[in-house]
Amino acid sequence: MTAIDQYPQGGRPVDFEMVSLYAVIGNPVSHSLSPLMHNRAFSVVGHQGIYVAIKVTDIGAAVNGIRALGFKGVSVTIPHKISVMAHLDEIDDMAVKIGAVNTILNRDGTLVGFNSDVLGVVRALNDVTTLRGKSVAIIGAGGAARAAGFGIASEGATLTIVNRGIARGETLAADLEADFLPLAEFDGSGTDVLVNTTPVGMTPHEQETPMKRDALRASMVVMDMVYNPVKTRLLQEAERIGCLTVSGAAMFVYQGAFQFELWTTKSAPLEVMKMTVSEALGGVGADL
Q: What CA–CA distance (Å, rounded) separates 47 from 52?
C-alpha cells in the first residue's frame, strides 16, 4: 500500500476532525478494490475522505455502527444488498423497484439507500452491444441479479433467470416478468447475452465457474460481474470459443462513479478510476 492509498490527500496525513468516513461492507470483503479506487479518486479531486473495507456478518449492528460513527457513505455488497433495506430510513424509488440496495448516503443523519448496480451493468453492456430485442440470460437470483434484470429489461431485452435454487429463481423471474430455467437445464439455446451475477469464480476461488462450458455459444456476449480476477474462468472459457466478453471491472467502475458523485457532489474522475482498477488487476483490461 502506498502513501496515496493510506492518505487520500496526495500522501499527506488528513485532519481527522474534518475527514469524511466511507466504507464497503460485506462478507467476504477483503478482495474489494473499492478502497483503492475511491481513495485515489478522493485524492485527485481534493476531497477529504477515507474509505475502508469492513467485514460484516450482522447487518443490523453494522447499520447502527454507521449511524454512531457518522459514516457519510457506504457501499453494500454480498450478502447484504437485500437485508440492509429493512434497517434504512429511506430508500430511493429505483432501489425499491429493484428490491436491493448497494449504496447508502448519510444525509444529515438520515440513511438513504440507492442502487448503482443497475447503472453499472447497463453502461458496461452498452459499451459493447445493444440490448433492445436481445434475449438475455441472468445467472443468479440475489440482489445483483435483481439490479441487472431491472436495468436490462428497461433497455428492451427479454429475460430468463437461471438459478440453482428453484424457489428463489422463480420468485425473481415473477418479479421481473421473466422466464425461469433451473441451472441444470440451461443449455444456452437462444441466448444472445449471458450475465453471471453470482460470486462463483471470485478470488480466491478462481477455478470455479457458475455454469457448464458446453452451454456457451460463440455468438454470445458474456459478462461476469466478478471483477477479481478480471478474467474469470467463465470469461476465459467464453473467449476460447469466440464469445465477446465483458469484465465485471467495467461495471464496478461505472457504479463506483455513481457512488462517488452521490457522496461528494463532485464529478467523478472516471479515467483515473478506470486506470486505478486496471493497474490493481495487473494491467489487464486497461481499455475499461
A: 15
